Automatic annotation (TrEMBL):
Keywords: Glycosidase, Hydrolase, Signal. Signal peptide: none annotated. The keyword Signal applies. PANTHER family: GLYCOSYL HYDROLASE, HYDROLASE, FAMILY 43, PUTATIVE (AFU_ORTHOLOGUE AFUA_3G01660)-RELATED. Belongs to the glycosyl hydrolase 43 family. This is Alpha-arabinofuranosidase II. GO terms for molecular function: alpha-L-arabinofuranosidase activity. GO terms for biological process: L-arabinose metabolic process. It comes from Streptomyces lincolnensis.
């Protein structure tokens, strides 16, 4: 009763203030700049080291390592999801003898100065572990039908094991980053960076950006490899993969100011902990060798990576063909750094729900109680999969991303994240009709399936199902999917 009285008093004060200052536009949160995008994983079975490039022609181009390690393949589609069923074209096949004759790994496709380029690694028929980096050049609007020529090996400071070349531009300068073994060090590979004279030639002295030294980088093998770059807010972020390619495989992160000298190692900061790791709850193991792309509307960054859906591997992981290409939305923290979250469960990817009237706060679970909070950590506490309603009849249910099998469920009109017990009562309490937002039709509101007229809403930051009788109530019951 006391909380109700306080709330009524505040409403009266707001109304009095409105009378004193005269009418004005209704308060309304802006529609999020990065609305929700969802995909269904996996995108491609038996495709590792994935690279997805969105071109100006409206197509996404997808290439990856095939488990036979003998060719380079491409797919294209107008949507990311469409890549899962797009026909695949082989654009190049390994040599029958000599260099580029074995272990065809980790292709990436780029469009530079009007031509297509594919970067890849390969061994030789007489030494399959003589892994080096090579480049193909393609002419033609469509790389699936382009004429491809071999530009040869990318020469570096050493003639040693090298792979995973990627290229990017910062402030008009094109760079190449890659992984290579320093012959003088008992490591597998470190991450290097150099400027480029042209798309197949580096120039100047390469610098080492990262060496595997942390415990999570040295499980099985001392490995830093697979660099991938994304830029935002005047910062350059480089993710990379570490440790053996089994369930210990994970992502680390380097960052630098875009205005700094990127060839000065001191200008790069390295995360002391991995940013993306195996997750037993969601059944995803060894996530790594990622790339970045953007959503179809250009408003969301999308993380592309491979993993396996089981932990234990028989024999050498290199001989296990079951790494799958997967995608999920990449989020950003308030401090401007990327938040990778967790590798989400197979199936539809989750979303976040921001509050209409508290736009920096998101629906999340905390000790199983549902509430809205800002700066949610871990991110997955605020991610929910929208799935067909447990009670059917056109409803939806909201499943926790990091507690699969747990759903937003009301009990005595309080909302918690609870494990599905299989009962009809649970199904009804965890099912909602998805409606246009009560305060903004661009948003969404959730009406309880078994209590018509009662909606999911926040009150003093906690979630309930209640009947919204006022404008404030309707605002509290309106959310945006992000």
């Amino acid at each position: 009763m006391r909380r109700t009285a306080v709330r009524l008093l505040l409403a009266a004060l707001v109304a009095l203030a409105a009378c004193l200052v005269g009418p004005g536009p209704a308060a309304q949160a802006a529609v999020p700049a990065s609305p929700a995008v969802t995909y269904t994983n996996p995108i491609a079975e038996k495709r590792a080291d994935p690279h997805i490039f969105k071109h100006t022609d409206g197509y996404y181009y997808f290439t990856a390592t095939v488990p036979e390690y003998d060719r380079i393949v491409l797919r294209r589609a107008t949507t990311i999801q469409g890549l899962s069923t797009a026909p695949e074209t082989t654009i190049w096949t390994k040599h029958a003898s000599g260099v580029m004759g074995a272990h065809i790994w980790a292709p990436e496709i780029h469009f530079i100065d009007g031509k297509w380029y594919v970067y890849f690694a390969a061994g030789a028929t007489n030494d399959v572990w003589a892994i080096r980096m090579y480049v193909l050049e393609g002419t033609g609007a469509n790389p699936l039908t382009a004429a491809w020529t071999e530009k040869g090996q990318i020469r570096t400071q050493w003639e040693s094991f090298s792979l995973d070349a990627t290229t990017f531009v910062v402030n008009g300068v094109r760079y190449l980053s890659w992984a290579q073994r320093d012959p003088s060090v008992n490591n597998n590979t470190d991450i290097y960076l150099a400027k480029m004279a042209n798309p197949w030639t580096i120039t100047g002295t390469p610098v080492m950006l990262s060496r595997p030294t942390y415990s999570w980088e040295t499980v099985g093998y001392k490995v830093n490899e697979g660099p991938a770059v994304i830029q935002r807010g005047g910062k350059v972020f480089m993710s990379y993969s570490a440790s053996a390619t089994d369930s210990n495989y994970c992502l680390g992160l380097l960052s630098a100011s875009a205005s700094a000298d990127l060839l000065n190692t001191a200008n790069w900061t390295k995360s002391s902990t991995p940013v993306f790791t195996s997750n037993a709850a969601t059944g995803q193991y060894g996530p790594g060798h990622n790339s970045f792309t953007v959503s179809e509307d250009g408003k969301s960054d999308v993380l592309v990576y491979h993993d396996r859906n089981y932990k234990d591997i028989s024999g050498d992981p290199l001989n296990d063909p079951n790494r799958r290409t997967r995608v999920q939305k990449l989020y950003w923290k308030a401090d401007g750094t990327p938040d990778f979250g967790i590798p989400v469960a197979d199936g539809v990817t989750p979303q976040r729900l921001s509050s209409y009237n508290f736009p920096t706060r998101f629906v999340r679970h905390w000790e199983y109680r549902a509430r809205i909070d800002a700066n949610v950590s871990p991110l997955a506490d605020s991610q929910f999969r929208t799935v067909p309603g447990l009670s059917g009849n056109g409803t939806v249910s909201l499943e926790s991303a990091n507690f699969p099998g747990y759903y937003l469920r009301h009990d005595n009109f309080e909302v918690r994240v609870v494990r599905n017990d299989g009962t009809a009562r649970f199904a009804a309490d965890a099912s909602f009709f998805r409606r246009a937002g009560l305060s903004d039709s661009a948003g969404v509101s959730y009406e309880a399936s078994n209590y018509p007229g009662r909606y999911l809403r926040h009150w003093e930051y906690l979630l309930y199902v209640q009947s919204p009788g006022t404008a404030t109530d309707r605002a509290d019951a309106t959310f945006y999917a992000e």
